[in-house]
User: Which sequence fits this backbone?
């Protein structure tokens, strides 16, 4: 547990110390790789996260491209009591507000329709660190692992991270849900 905690702290500092221009350039490289992946091309409905204010790979351009190409976009809403996330369809791209942990979530009446897990083809997952075995370390609350556990088998789960976030090995336990793949710059 201490190893994860120390790694989280180290990776948060690295992510936050990136210049905005560098983050945008690296994010653009990651976007191009994602847009060429069969999982993205074939998906009709994908779940992303809102990267605004986190320093993570920018997801705004992914959301816009998905919507422009006729895909349905789902974003997470934090359920603190359940330590879980509820996927909701993005109906109003301009209505966001900070959730319980300061991460932006969809808000407003057009952003309340829950998505059924069976309808989500691809889940884009945030993380602070990843490894070659598709393990990830998130922010430490277990929300994404709880959510990913509920996904039907065969659903694609892709992590997005900068090259420096891809490590030889990250500490993983049986509780941690591995991804299908990781894309870096």
Assistant:
């Amino acid at each position: 547990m201490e190893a994860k905690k120390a790694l989280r702290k180290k990776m948060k500092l690295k992510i936050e110390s990136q210049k905005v221009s560098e983050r945008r350039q690296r994010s653009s490289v990651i976007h191009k790789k994602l847009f060429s992946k069969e999982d993205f091309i074939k998906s009709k409905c994908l779940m992303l996260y809102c990267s605004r204010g986190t320093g993570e790979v920018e997801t705004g351009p992914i959301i816009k491209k998905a919507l422009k190409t006729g895909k349905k976009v789902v974003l997470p809403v934090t359920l603190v009591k359940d330590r879980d996330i509820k996927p909701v369809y993005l109906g109003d791209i301009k209505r966001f507000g900070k959730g319980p942990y300061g991460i932006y979530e969809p808000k407003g009446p057009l952003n309340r329709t829950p998505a059924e897990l069976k309808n989500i083809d691809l889940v884009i997952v945030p993380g602070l660190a990843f490894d070659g075995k598709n393990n990830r370390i998130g922010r430490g609350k277990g929300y994404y692992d709880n959510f990913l556990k509920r996904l039907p088998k065969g659903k694609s789960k892709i992590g997005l991270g900068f090259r420096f976030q891809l490590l030889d090995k990250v500490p993983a336990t049986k509780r941690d849900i591995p991804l299908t793949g990781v894309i870096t710059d």
Summary: The chain has one domain: 2-183.
